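Next up, a specimen:

>
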Amino acid sequence: MRDAPPDFAMVERASAGLSLRLPRVPHRGRLGDVRAASVGSSMERHDFRTYHPGDDLRHVDWNAVARTGELVVRVRQDEVSPRVEVVLDVSASMAVSEEKASRAKEVAAWVCELARHGGSEPVLLMAGREVQKVPGPQTRLALSQVKADGREAFDVTLSRVPPFSQCGLRVVVSDFLVEAVPGPLAERFARNAAGCVLVQVLDDEDVDPSGGAGARLTDSESGEVLERILTPGVLAAYQERFGAHVREWQSAARRVSASWVQVPASRSLPELARQELSLLVEAA
């Protein structure tokens, strides 16, 4: 795998003078509230994270422990509904090239930056080898350190994540190259969100694998060989399956009123911000 950190100078250039476009719909309850900066005494559940030595055992969520086998603690805050939530896939397939790894992280960082420009405090959820939920002030550091090395597919990792909180906008950044049926996943991404955008980041090899003579198709997460050799017939079958898979996701996104955006990792973030990702930018 060829992981790479995001180029934050590029993120700053691409976000300069811009803010995030938020849904123009009535918000229910606390949907539009900005989170408090410190942990409060509210009894409303806000967040989950892995137990660290010294944490109060009274905050352990034993139902989550039973499901995952890991010690998970609840973190409560006075305001529990982040207006903007960014979900980033950091499974191994997101690092098939340095461009893909860095571009996905840059898109996530860019959305977080646009949210801050508009006065919202974003929350970043990264699903890979571990699941990390990071509050706004720490998103840049988290994105600079995370590695796309999850050995499970994105949908498998998400199955261990508690239900998403309410938010004004949820942006999911992934290649969406999973075996799971798109419909239920799209419904989960859109649930409790006033607006939802699914951003598919693809490397050239995802779209049109070549690899050269004797190359094989393998599963990025498991390493399983999917095809013995990339013959013209194998490539044609892959293209057909790939096209059908994308169409299924597009249809699933429409059914839950989510926006679907496909971005090539080979393009720079400023270029993507002006074109494919412009739907996320508030008009001047």
